[in-house]
Amino acid sequence: MDANVKNNQLMENDDVRKVLDMMKEHYPDTGHDYSLLFEQMEQMARQLDHALKELAEVKTQLQNAQESPVKKYVSHAVDLTENRLRGISERLTELKGHIVENAKETLVKVKQVGVKALDKAFSVIGVKKLLEILQDEVAKSVRDVGKTIEKVEAVGQELRSVGGHLKNVGRAAIGKETVAVDGGVEGRFQSRIVSSLRLEEKILCKMNDLALGAIESVDRLGRSAECASEEKQTEKSKEDVVKDRKEKPSVMKDLQEKKSQVIMAIPAVNKEKMKAQEAAL
User: Fold this and answer.
1) CA 229, CA 120: separation in Å to the nearest integer?
2) Strand (E) or helix (H) holding 12
3) Considering the chain, what is the average pLDDT of its residues?
4) Rounded to whole angstroms, what are the CA distances from 65 to 68, 72, 188, 189, 278?
5) Helix (H) or strand (E) holding 159
6) Rounded Cα gap, residues 225 and 123, in angstroms
7) How far apart are CA 34 and CA 220, in angstroms?
C-alpha cells in the first residue's frame, strides 16, 4: 500500500490529487464533497491517534496505582477499548487504500473515454459500507467508555463511603461525635482516571460525528453518480434522435430520387411509342 496512505496523508496521494483536481474543474459541487470526505477521514485519523494516546496515559496511571477492584475493572475496560480502536485504525487504512485504488482506476478510464469517467470516482464503491462498520465500532467505544466512567465513579463513591463509616466507628469508640458520610470528593487516582476517560469519551464522540459526516458525504457522491449516469443516458437518447433525423431525410431523398427517375422515364417511353406509331403509318 502507498506509504502516504499508511501515514494518514490521503490528500497527498498523486492519483487522488489528480482526480480531485479534475472534479473541481468539471464538477465543482461534487469536487467539494469529494474533498470534504477526505478531510473528514484525515480528521478521524488524527482523533484516533489522540484517543490512543489518552488510553496510553490512563494505562500509565493504572500501573502506578495500588491494586484494587477499580484498577482491575478500568484496566480491563481500557484494554477492550484500545483493541477496538486499533481495529478502527486498520479499517480506516483499508478505506483509504480503497479510495486510492478507485482513483487509479478512474484515471485509466479518463484516458480511455474522457472526463465523463469521473462518475466512477463519484460512487466511491464500497466506501459507505466500510464507513458504516467503522462508525458502529466508534459508537460502541463511546458507550463502553461512558459505562467505565459510571462504574469508576460509583465504585469510588462506595469505597470512600465505606472508609467514612469505618472512621465514624473509630470516632464513636473514643466518644467523639460522628460526621455525615456522603462519599466525599474524588480521590486523586480516581480523579485522574475519570478525567482521562472523559477526555477519551469526548474524542470518540467527535470521531463518531466525523464518521457520520463522512457517510453523508458518500451519500451525496452516490447521488452525483446517479445524476451523471442519467445525464449520460439523456445525452445518448439525444444522440439517437439526431441520428434518426439524419437517417430519415436520407431515406426520403432516396425515394424522391427514384420517383424523379421514374417520372423522367415516362416521357421517353411515350416518345418511343409515338415513333413506333408514325412508322406504322
Assistant:
1) 10
2) none
3) 75
4) 8, 10, 10, 7, 136
5) helix 127-173
6) 6
7) 9
In this model, does residue 34 exceed pLDDT 60?
Answer: yes
Three cell numbers at 196? 482521562
Angle at 128 between CA 9 and CA 81, to 5 degrees: 70
C-alpha grid cell, residue 11: 490528500
**Residue 278 burial class via C-beta count within 10 angstroms: exposed 0-12, middle 13-18, buried 19 and up:** exposed
210 vs 6, 63, 87, 134, 206, CA distance in Å?
19, 33, 17, 11, 6
Q: Which has the closest alpha carbon to 40: 83, 81, 86, 99?
A: 99
Residue 207 to residue 225: CA distance in whole angstroms: 27
Pick the range with the lowest mean pLDDT from 59-68, 88-97, 151-160.
151-160
pLDDT for 176: 54
Residue closest to 77 by CA, chosen among 187, 207, 183, 201: 201
* Among 152, 153, 183, CA closest to 165: 183
Torsion of CA 121, 122, 125, 129, to 10 degrees: 140
Predicted pLDDT of residue 222: 77
pLDDT at 136 over 90: yes
Q: Residues 56-84, buried b or exposed e (16+ Cβ, 10 A)?
A: ebbeebbeebeeeebbeebeebbeebbeb
Question: How much of the chain, in percent, has pLDDT values that exceed 70?
Answer: 62
Whole-number Cα distances in Å, 236 to 120, 203, 245: 18, 49, 14
Integer Cα distance of 265 and 269 in angstroms? 6
> Cα 181–187–193 angle (5° rounding)?
135
